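Running co-folding for manganese (II) ion.
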Amino acid sequence: MPLKCGVMRICRFDDNRVGIVSGEGIRDVTAVLDRLPQVTYPLPRHDPFIAALRDLLPEMPAAARRASPIPVDQVRLLSPVANPGKIIAAPVNYKKHLEEALADKGIHHGNLVSEIHKAGMFLKAPSSLVGPGEGVKLVHLDRRNDHEVELAVVIGRKARNVSAAEAPGCIAGYCIGLDMTIRGPEERSLRKSPDSYCVLGPWLTTPDEIPDPGQLALSIKVNGETRQDAHTSDLILKVPELIAWGSSFYTLYPGDVLLTGTPQGVGPVRPGDMMLASIERIGSMRVEVT
Ligand code: MN
């Protein structure tokens, strides 16, 4: 199997297994977790797997060669990051989404919606995080519940006050993120943090595969109908600027997740819907709404 050491897609699946994804399927490399340092109380603020990833990556190809590939559609994909310290999210980071949010009371609800330089960033509860195989379980069904497809960045090393030029060196990899949202007048952190309202998947794609995160097509279909179809070149604040800005407020730790904002085309989902989210160079993930 041609598995270059640098370019990898790393997933978590089924009963907390870790796998390497290739065209042939998923190869189980869970044994590499035996190398993680013992964790004692108080727990670290970082995700121990992502913190050790740099050291574990060189061992994964050998472990993968000993495993038989499992078809991707036969596993239940979990979030590639199990224990992020925080999930940071950028609001209105695409100009056309700002315009649609301002034009639609169903989105803005009288909230002051302004572009990201003024709005800043917000946090989603880590308890909201699931993988694509777990699905989104809607709450407050009387309210509008929207999908937001976003490029997600996973932080790979501790970062405080880094510059945009230094930021790429802080990235462990990229995923597709769904920032599920109840529309309404409350704070974003409340409306975007119910259990399962942050979907991360289908796997972590290492930066070798994505030389420029500002050059990726992203889309989401609901029941086969295209809702959002955009490009990260339209981001107002690019990935390096977001990391630099975030790190000027709080220390970023390995495993912290950064959702970079959603483009235009947000829309409601209902129980029974099937979402198909895709980002160029990462892949696609199917997520059921229940
Ligand atoms: Mn969002």
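Result summary
The pocket of manganese (II) ion is lined by residues 89, 148, 150, 179, 259, 261-262 (CB under 6 Å).
The radius of gyration is 18 Å.
Job closed.
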